[in-house]
Every structure is written in structure tokens, then in C-alpha cells.
TrEMBL record:
It comes from Candidatus Odoribacter faecigallinarum. This is Fic family protein.
Length: 101
């Protein structure tokens, strides 16, 4: 039970810090980025096409948003190909892995 409480506390803190970072550094893209983060908290894997649908953006805008999130260390590419790339909300998943140690 303590493990679950610690993990939940870490997740809530991470969510809050991530939202603050996005609000202060993403400018006009902040609302789309926060919307994507909320979806990533439920399913930490995404591709550009899914981000496009979730955020109601053009493909280019969704791709640019994912690139910024990768540059900021929020997302990490799981696949190396240039098309149909899959990204993971890496720092979020690590909260669950580190809590289990």
C-alpha cells in the first residue's frame, strides 16, 4: 500500500511539474501539449498521427509538437525509422520502474 501511495504521489508531482514547464515554455502550443500529456498519462505511447487527432492539429504541427517534447526530454522515440515513429512518455514510465526498486 505504501508503494502505491508513493507512486501516486510521484505521478501527481510529475504531472504538475510537467504542466508548469509546458505553460512557461511552449507558448501558443501549451494547450495542445497539455492535452497530449493528459492522454499520455493514460497511454504513454503515441505517434504523430495520434497526436494530430488528439490535439486537432495538422500533421506538421503535431510533428513539431512531438519534436519539441522530444527535445525537452518529455518524449523519446522508440523507433528509428523516419515514418510511423512511435514515441514513449519515458519520464512518466520511469516513475513506475524506479518505485519498484
Amino acid at each position: 500500500a505504501e508503494h502505491a501511495v508513493n507512486t501516486l504521489s510521484a505521478v501527481l508531482k510529475f504531472k504538475e511539474q510537467t504542466e508548469i514547464h509546458i505553460r512557461t515554455t511552449y507558448g501558443k502550443r501549451s494547450s495542445s501539449a497539455i492535452l497530449l500529456v493528459h492522454k499520455l498519462l493514460k497511454n504513454p505511447f503515441v505517434n504523430v498521427e495520434q497526436a494530430k487527432e488528439i490535439c486537432h492539429l495538422s500533421y506538421k504541427a503535431a510533428n513539431d509538437l512531438i519534436k519539441k517534447m522530444c527535445d525537452d526530454g518529455l518524449l523519446m522515440a522508440l523507433t528509428k525509422q523516419s515514418r510511423n515513429r512511435i514515441f514513449v512518455f519515458d519520464q512518466y514510465l520511469k516513475l513506475f520502474i524506479n518505485e519498484g526498486e
